[in-house]
């Protein structure tokens, strides 16, 4: 499938219910830049990216794609693409430079201007409070491994909703707490760059506790559309051998169920609790915590990129530390078939299965695909176009996977492509491009890729059918 095929053929069979939300997503540290402007404090990603050897070729988010100064142009791009919604995150250290206490109004003013521009353009803002950029001041006091950070997160939520609650309808507390907790505290691949299983287990619980405490503050402020975004990766055993089946169970527990089940059902999975205790890294649960975590939600955000096949056995040294507590004896196999430039496999059928599985595990809770996308080596050609047939293929196949899930009964209400713009891809720096819009990092010139044009055509047709 390539962009040379007629769009009629590419989009055939893609039909979504009336009212279905189509948007694109970003995250503050990945796009904003302006890290030293208007009183912004330092975040753990400022520290991590400036630590030699942590990020590809020493890249940082200091400038990123300069969205802080170019947001009006970027909103105009969203309007040109026909996006009905835009998912973005607020940078906690831009609002509370020390993590709490003094409020930086200049930081809040930026988000006020952004939200106003979105509304003027007819683009509905979907706000995420935390997309991994913890204030360094809080990390210095223990970060997410310290219970007090959950309370500080609730205070931060109250500050943001007080400023923006009159104009923003859709709120999400956390993005992918699995990454913050396990890649950040166990594997050390992400900020704060620790390899401490005990800290990782504590971070799992305190992130979820922070979600529940923040949800209560948002509800008190009148928020009526509230969610949390979790990343789901199916874990398939390499064989029917009991050891492989158990390896898949263990990784599924820490990747998926330990975050989903307390939020939806108010309890941690018993097998995961036992696994973590056996590894010497218990969850620090106190009386009443799980009732707080299980705050009622209006939707569940679903981030999906790929599936994993796993088997029992010693983890190869070349793969680095496992992000899973006690995961040193489980191997995540390299994917078969084509991969993105991230090295991720392409499994749209598994996407359908995830959405159906969530319908069973969280009955009655609407789903919103808050991230889905792929990285490829995109370039602007001599005519000024960006032809990205691989991303077009990935996008169409994964949209078809959503359609298939809806046809089979999944209550999916929206889809946000990751990402609107090429940007700072965390530890991979600027080497990975996920955007529907290409960014020349030297000039900051934006160019809509073929995938962005196709997405815009899909959205146009959806509006016409409404």
UniProtKB/TrEMBL annotation:
List the SUPFAM superfamilies hit by this protein, alphabetically: (Trans)glycosidases
Q: Which reaction does it catalyse?
A: Hydrolysis of terminal, non-reducing beta-D-glucosyl residues with release of beta-D-glucose
**What positions does UniProt annotate as the active site of this protein?**
176, 371
Q: Which GO terms describe its cellular component?
A: cytosol
Q: Where does substrate bind?
A: 30, 131, 175, 305, 418, 425-426
EC class of this enzyme? hydrolase
Its EC number(s): 3.2.1.21
GO annotation, biological process: cellulose catabolic process
Q: Does the keyword Amino-acid biosynthesis apply?
A: no
Any one GO MF term held by the record is: beta-glucosidase activity
Q: Does the keyword Hydrolase apply?
A: yes
**Keywords annotated in UniProt:** Carbohydrate metabolism, Cellulose degradation, Glycosidase, Hydrolase, Polysaccharide degradation
Q: Which family, according to UniProt? A: Belongs to the glycosyl hydrolase 1 family.
Q: Which PANTHER family match?
A: GLYCOSYL HYDROLASE (PTHR10353), LP05116P (PTHR10353:SF36)
Question: What name is this protein filed under?
Answer: Beta-glucosidase
Q: Which organism is it from?
A: Geodermatophilus dictyosporus
């Amino acid at each position: 499938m390539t962009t040379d095929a007629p769009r009629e053929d590419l989009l055939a069979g893609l039909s979504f219910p009336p009212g279905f939300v189509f948007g694109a997503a970003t995250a503050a540290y990945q796009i904003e830049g302006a890290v030293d402007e208007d009183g912004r404090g330092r975040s753990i990603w400022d520290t991590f990216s400036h630590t030699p050897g942590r990020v590809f070729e020493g890249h940082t988010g200091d400038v990123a794609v300069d969205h802080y100064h170019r947001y009006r142009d970027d909103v105009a791009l969203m309007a040109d693409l026909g996006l009905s919604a835009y998912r973005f995150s607020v940078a906690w250290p831009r609002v509370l430079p020390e993590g709490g206490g003094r409020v930086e109004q200049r930081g809040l003013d930026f988000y006020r201007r952004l939200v106003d521009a979105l509304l003027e353009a007819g683009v509905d803002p979907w706000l995420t409070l935390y997309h991994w950029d913890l204030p360094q001041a809080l990390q210095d006091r223990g970060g997410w491994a310290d219970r007090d950070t959950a309370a500080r997160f609730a205070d931060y939520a109250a500050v943001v909703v007080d400023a923006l609650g009159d104009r923003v309808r859709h709120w999400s507390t956390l993005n992918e707490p699995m990454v913050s907790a396990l890649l950040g505290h166990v594997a050390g691949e992400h900020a704060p760059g620790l390899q401490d299983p005990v800290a990782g287990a504590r971070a799992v619980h305190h992130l979820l506790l922070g979600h529940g405490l923040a949800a209560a503050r948002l509800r008190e402020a009148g928020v009526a559309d509230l969610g949390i975004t979790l990343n789901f990766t199916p874990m398939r055993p390499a064989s029917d051998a009991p050891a492989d089946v158990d390896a898949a169970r263990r990784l599924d527990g820490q990747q998926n169920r330990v975050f989903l089940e307390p939020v939806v059902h108010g309890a941690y999975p018993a097998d995961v609790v036992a696994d973590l205790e056996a590894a010497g890294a218990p969850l620090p649960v106190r009386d009443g915590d799980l009732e707080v975590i299980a705050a009622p939600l209006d939707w569940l955000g679903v981030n999906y990129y790929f599936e994993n096949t796993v088997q029992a056995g010693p983890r190869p040294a070349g793969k680095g530390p496992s992000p899973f507590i006690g995961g040193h004896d489980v191997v995540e196999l390299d994917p078969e078939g084509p991969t993105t430039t991230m090295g991720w496999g392409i499994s749209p059928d598994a996407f359908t299965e995830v959405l159906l599985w969530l319908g069973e595990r969280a009955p009655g809770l609407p789903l919103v695909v808050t991230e889905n996308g792929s990285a490829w080596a995109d370039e602007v050609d001599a005519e000024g176009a960006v032809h990205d047939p691989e991303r077009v293929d990935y996008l169409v196949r994964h949209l078809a996977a959503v359609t298939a899930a809806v046809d089979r009964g999944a209550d999916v209400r929206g889809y946000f492509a990751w990402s609107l713009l090429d940007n700072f891809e965390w530890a991979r720096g600027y080497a990975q491009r996920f955007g529907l819009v290409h960014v020349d990092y030297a000039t900051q010139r934006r160019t809509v890729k073929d995938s962005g044009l196709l997405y815009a055509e899909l959205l146009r047709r959806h509006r016409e059918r409404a």
